[in-house]
Structure formats: C-alpha cells, structure tokens
C-alpha cells in the first residue's frame, strides 16, 4: 500500500510503501530525486529518464521526494551524476554518519517521520535551492517552450542546458517532456479521457501522448492503467492506444 503527504520540507513529499497484493508498478520519470530508507539502508534515487523496475517491491520503503531541482543542493552532488541510479547514501555522505542515521530511522516506531526529521535537519544546514531553477520548472510545467523559459529567467540556451544538467540530471527539453507526461497521467487518474488528457497536458493529440508514454517508460497507457487502477480505459472516449507492452 502506497501513501504520501506533503512534507514539512518546502515543496517535498513524504511517502511510504508497504508490501501488499497485486502487481508491482514500475517507477516512472517525474523530474524528482528521493532520499530512501528500506530494510535498514539509506539510499539516493537519482532523476530518471526511463521507468525503473520496482526493485524490492515486497519490502517496506519510506521516502522523501524532493521537487525538481531541489535535491542537488541537499545531497551536495550534481543531479546528472546520479541520473538513472539508485546508490547508497554512504556513496554521497560520510559512511559513519549514514550508518548512524539509518540505525536511528530503523529503530524508530515511526520510520517515515524519522526519515523526514533527518531531511529537515540536513536541509537546515545545506545551501538553499536556487530560486531560478524553481522558475525554470514552473515555466516548463506551465507548458512554456525551452526558449521562452530561458528568456524568462535571463539565461541563454547553453547556460540553461548546463544549469539543467546539474539541477535536474538532464536538459530542459527532457524535463519538459517528463513534466508533461506527469500532467497527463494526473489527469487520467482523475478520470479525464485519453484524448482530453493529452490536449490538456500539452500534447498535440492522443497518439502523441501514447508515443511519449512508450518512449519515456516502455509502457503503454493501457498497460500502466492495468498495473494501477485498471480504470482508465472505461473512462476514455476512445480505445486505449496500442503499442509495445514492454514493462520496463
């Protein structure tokens, strides 16, 4: 069972996932990075460019999900160095400190709250996220082009690309695609038909959304619906898009 809530850490989400029945769902790209706890270990989830298999799906997990661009300052590592990776936190922070933190969380009766407390304490001492990066995310998430977003924040295209690699793990065009896909998926979960969700999210049509889903996740929209609620096709005005059924 998965559940999440807004964190006391600005813009972040605290979540936990307990083993349960049903198929394991791949983790889709969302532009974010996470601080993770599972089975006595602390890990860092870097930004994804493709769906990640649900490793350890039958274990309990807790996480703090940072908004796009916020985690590199927290971890002290450029995002592109962790792209598509899950690494031990001890690869990033001193091992002795990580062991102490992991033991504290493992021994806590509320591991989610304990993990959030660790994040809050470290964030208080870490450099704050660059507000310019938040403006980049907001511009792209609102459907702005890379060129218009760069102009709005006062950066050239090359500067924006370089800053985006450090902050998000990939260039602004990829970030825009990931954010658009997440907007579409949110609409689908709310019962919006495929075609309507595609247009509202910024895709040219339903086929465009289907291609983006396959390119970024290896899944079709219909297959992802089956793995989650199974309700989307019934809410669609048109049949579910066809295509590869590869589960990344």
Automatic annotation (TrEMBL):
Gene Ontology molecular function: DNA-binding transcription factor activity; sequence-specific DNA binding
Domain of life of the source: Bacteria
Gene3D superfamilies: Homeodomain-like
This protein's UniProt keywords: DNA-binding, Transcription, Transcription regulation
SMART domains: HTH_ARAC (SM00342)
PROSITE patterns given in the database record: HTH_ARAC_FAMILY_2
Entry-linked PANTHER family: BLL1074 PROTEIN (PTHR46796:SF15), HTH-TYPE TRANSCRIPTIONAL ACTIVATOR RHAS-RELATED (PTHR46796)
Protein name: AraC-type DNA-binding protein
Species of the source: Streptomyces wuyuanensis
């Amino acid at each position: 069972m998965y559940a999440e809530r807004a964190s006391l850490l600005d813009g972040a989400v605290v979540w936990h996932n307990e083993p349960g029945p049903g198929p394991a769902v791949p983790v889709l790209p969302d532009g974010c990075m996470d601080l993770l706890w599972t089975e006595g270990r602390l890990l860092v989830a870097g930004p994804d460019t493709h769906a990640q298999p649900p490793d350890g799906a039958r274990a309990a997990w807790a996480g703090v999900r940072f908004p796009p661009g916020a985690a590199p300052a927290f971890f002290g590592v450029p995002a592109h160095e962790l792209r598509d990776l899950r690494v031990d936190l001890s690869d990033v922070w001193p091992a002795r400190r990580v062991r102490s933190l992991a033991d504290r969380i493992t021994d806590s009766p509320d591991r989610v709250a304990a993990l959030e407390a660790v994040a809050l304490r470290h964030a208080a001492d870490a450099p704050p996220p660059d507000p310019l990066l938040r403006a980049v995310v907001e511009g792209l998430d609102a459907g702005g082009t890379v060129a218009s977003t760069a102009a709005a924040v006062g950066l050239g295209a090359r500067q924006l690309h370089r800053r985006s690699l450090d902050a998000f793990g990939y260039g602004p065009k990829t970030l825009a695609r990931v954010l658009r896909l997440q907007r579409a998926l949110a609409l689908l979960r709310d019962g919006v038909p495929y075609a309507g969700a595609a247009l509202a999210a910024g895709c040219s049509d339903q086929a465009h959304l289907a291609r983006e889903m396959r390119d970024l996740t290896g899944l079709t929209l219909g297959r992802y619906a089956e793995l989650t609620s199974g309700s989307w096709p019934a809410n669609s005005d048109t049949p579910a898009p066809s295509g590869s059924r590869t589960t990344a």
